[in-house]
Specification:
Order of helices and strands: HEEEEEHEEEEEEEHEEEEE
Distance between the termini: 49 Å
Number of strands: 17
Structural class: mainly beta
CATH superfamily: Exo-inulinase, domain 1
Radius of gyration: 19 Å
CATH topology: Jelly Rolls
Strand content: 35-45%
CATH class: Mainly Beta
Number of domains: 1
């Protein structure tokens, strides 16, 4: 009786519940799942930071387990050399794609690296490339940046064109930044969608466009690795699930 009553109340709008579609039992046509929900098969990262807890990818730092620089969980994409830690060819990796996943974050800063390249241990940042950013305080949520390279490429709410001369031009708006942030649920699961096709990059959170970038800079990295990030700084917890990709 409790079950039927809850169902009636939900149908009439009197009882709230998370009705977000789940990909637990499959993915959308044309998409491939990148996470099996059990372990980190197909991914490579520091096991002290990255693990699978309760069926989701978890990146966590604590007072006893901190990082002095940003650390990454890299999708090896079936590349045996990358899985062994060997440097892949510069042109290797994912080029044009749509990535969908769900994330939640408690404290700190994280993001999804894409079209990124690995560097030697002599560099302070082991992975560089574009990042679909988000953070617990909202400052970086829905922002595109290239940490240590070209910096911030598009802030939340901006429509940006980068010319062949590398100049960043804000040409329009996709919404007011504070209003866009209101649609993001703190410490709860959010849907993140990243579309990268040629120089066009669009970020969406919970089906709302956060920013829109057209990158014509010849310095941009056209293809590279996908990775999840734990940022140096305060103790943090970030989790990911339902990760799937469609390559164009």
């Amino acid at each position: 009786m409790r079950f039927y009553l809850d169902g009636i109340q939900f149908a009439t709008g009197d009882l709230g519940a998370d009705a977000t579609a789940s990909t637990k039992f499959g993915v959308e046509p044309g998409f491939t799942s990148l996470f099996n929900g059990r372990d980190l098969t197909g991914w490579r990262g520091n096991p002290k930071i990255w693990s699978v807890k309760d069926g989701v990818i978890t990146g966590q730092t604590t007072p006893k387990n901190r990082v002095s620089e940003n650390t990454f969980l890299i999708w090896t994409g079936g590349d045996p050399a990358l899985a062994r830690g060997q440097a892949p060819p510069a042109e290797a990796g994912v080029k044009d794609f749509e990535l969908r996943l769900r994330y939640r974050i408690e404290n700190g800063n994280s993001g999804i690296y894409f079209r990124s390249t690995e560097r030697t241990a002599m560099h302070p940042e082991p992975l560089v490339g574009c990042q679909a950013d988000f953070s617990a305080d909202g400052r970086w949520t829905g922002v595109i940046m290239e940490y240590t390279l070209r910096g911030i490429l598009a802030e939340r709410g901006q429509k940006v064109v980068i010319g062949k001369d590398g100049k960043i031009n804000v040409v329009g708006s996709v919404g007011e930044p504070d209003e866009l942030l209101k649609g993001v649920k703190p410490k709860q699961w959010n849907d993140y969608s990243l579309i990268a096709k040629g120089g066009r990059i669009i970020l969406k959170i919970n089906d709302v466009v956060m920013c829109d970038l057209e990158d014509n800079d010849p310095r941009r990295i056209p293809s590279g690795r996908l990775a999840l990030q734990v940022h140096q700084g305060p103790d943090m917890l970030v989790q990911f699930k339902d990760i799937r990709i469609r390559q164009f």
